[in-house]
Write a structure and sequence with these properties.
- The chain is mainly β.
- 10% of the residues lie in helices and 39% in strands.
Length: 292
């Protein structure tokens, strides 16, 4: 399908060829567990967490390259101990994964978002920042953009993290495994809030995360097809052009780079690259990344 669009916060619009998926939940996703903790209210989907169960869903298809987006309103009030996740992941022990994890907190304390990137089954690349707004008061847009050059995490179209392809330096990059799109809410009071010191107060249950306006603009991959065939199918060639391969999307714009610098300077509270107690030897990609 072809249409004109502006993506990734760029002011320049261009034609792209690729999958333009519906925003209806039931066309893109299916419940993964605890269907009795799902509630549909018109165009809204609510996932509930209580002391019996959380809930989660996943996409019906797998994708390679493109952009996935959801509008999400997080748990209101005392959300300590809860985690709401929105992420992409492939399957198997050597999987790739791009994570948004929203970490609840006590009333009045800032909501934190933790991002992580797994490559070939290896994660431990956590970054954490306090959002510059209250994400429980209104809907905000959370997106993951992925092409062969970079993975970009965006909040209301502001980049908060970039994971750059540094294969030319011998560093693996996730570009050969199709990924599903997932979201869930669960109890993680052993670590989520202030290092696990603040536990979930079940008297405030159910904890509710509310979703709307799902969007997947990405290359849909048939399940039985090999990784090499998927990579070939989802890469531009002389006879097909995908929007995510546009040269302008190989790196951030100057404006986006300034936005990322602002986020890191004013809102980041943890960066694995700076955790010398945990990593006495700086991870090699940290040395190479200018913006993370």
């Amino acid at each position: 399908m072809t249409r004109m669009s502006c993506l990734l916060g760029f002011s320049v619009c261009f034609l792209f060829v690729g999958l333009v998926a519906s925003s209806k939940f039931e066309e893109l996703f299916q419940p993964g567990w605890a269907m009795d903790h799902f509630e549909h209210q018109g165009d809204l989907l609510k996932l509930k967490l209580d002391n019996y169960s959380g809930a989660g869903f996943g996409s019906k298809s797998k994708y390679m390259f493109g952009k996935v987006t959801v509008q999400l309103k997080l748990v209101e009030g005392d959300s300590a101990g809860t985690v709401t996740a929105f992420y992409m992941s492939s399957e198997g022990p050597n999987h790739n994964e791009f994570d948004f994890e929203f970490l609840g907190n006590t009333t009045g304390e800032p909501y934190s978002v933790q991002t992580n990137v797994y490559v070939n089954g290896v994660g431990n690349r956590e970054q954490r920042l306090n959002l510059w707004f209250d994400p429980s008061k209104d809907f905000h847009t959370y997106s993951i953009f992925w092409n062969q050059r970079q993975v970009v995490f965006l909040v209301d179209e502001t980049p908060i993290r970039v994971h750059t392809n540094l294969e030319h330096k011998g560093i693996p990059f996730p570009k050969d495994q199709a990924m599903g799109v997932y979201s869930s809410i669960w109890n993680a009071d052993d670590w989520a809030t202030q290092g696990g010191r603040v536990k979930t107060d079940w008297s405030h249950a159910p904890f509710v995360a509310t979703y709307k306006d799902f969007e997947i603009n990405a290359c849909e991959c048939p399940v039985p097809v090999t990784s090499n065939d998927n990579a070939k199918k989802c890469s531009s060639s002389e006879d097909k052009k995908y929007w995510w391969d546009e040269p302008m999307l190989s790196e951030l714009t100057i404006h986006q780079s300034h936005q990322l610098i602002w986020v890191r300077a004013n809102h980041m509270v943890y960066d694995y690259c700076a955790d010398t107690a945990r990593f006495p030897v700086i991870p090699v990609e940290c040395v190479r990344h200018h913006h993370q």
